[in-house]
Amino acid sequence: MADNKVKSTKPANKTPPKSPSDPAKDRAAKRLSCDSNSSHEGAVAGEVSALEEAFRKFAIHGDTRATGKEMHGKNWSKLCKDCHVIDGKNVTITEVDIVFSKIKGKSSRTITFEQFKEALHELSKKRFKDKNDEEAVQEIYKLIEGKAPIISGVTKAISSPTVSRLTDTTKFTGSHKERFDPSGKGKGKAGREDLVDASGYVSGYKHAGTYDHKVQGSK
Which of 10, 97, 102, 140 has minimal CB crowding within 10 Å? Predict the structure, then answer.
């Protein structure tokens, strides 16, 4: 009877044990998840994503410590200039500065992305007077979307007669002339100090080193 009894056994757990997780991999996975979510949101609202990307690029311009979440007044003015929000007629640099001061907090020196859009809404009324509010905002967004700060080229040096005269070694006189050789190359220490001639010849003697030649020639 005991042998005919079916012994109850617990089902074996076939799930493999979890390996110790790597904190670095976990953080990377979480960051990728956040990036995928943000890219999905950007796909839903493409124009907002492009506008925010332009805001971020201008916000970090010239400031290595900037996070891209807030923008200073200097970069705000540059954005309006580079993206042609300022046209010199309907919108001037003065009006851009006034709108920035109006939108930002009293004790703040920067504006957020939401405040940035409010400022653009204010300027759109002046920049596109012939359009209604919604069309004007869309037009001013188009001026900024996909744009990045314009980096000016290196300023070329302009030669002037005064600088040329001061750097032309052939026109130097006195002790300054002794510091350069005929090609204009500096002599270094020899041009700055009086080096003692220890060769045994009298100072200024022009036939130094010719004795052996004369003796051998006379034989």
Answer: 10
CA distance 129 to 116: 20
pLDDT in tens, 24-63: 555 545 544 544 454 444 444 444 479 999 999 999 998 8
Q: What is the 3-state secondary structure (H, E, C) of 167-203?
A: HCHHHCCHHHHCCECCCCCECCHHHHCCCCCCCCCCC
> Please, where are the H alpha helices in the chain?
23-44, 46-59, 73-82, 93-103, 113-127, 133-144, 161-167, 174-177, 189-192, 211-218
Distances (CA, A) of 195 to 174, 190, 201: 18, 7, 14
**72 forms bridges with which residues in the sheet?**
110
Tokens read off for 80: 């309006």
Q: Cα-atom radius of gyration of the chain, to the nearest Å?
A: 39
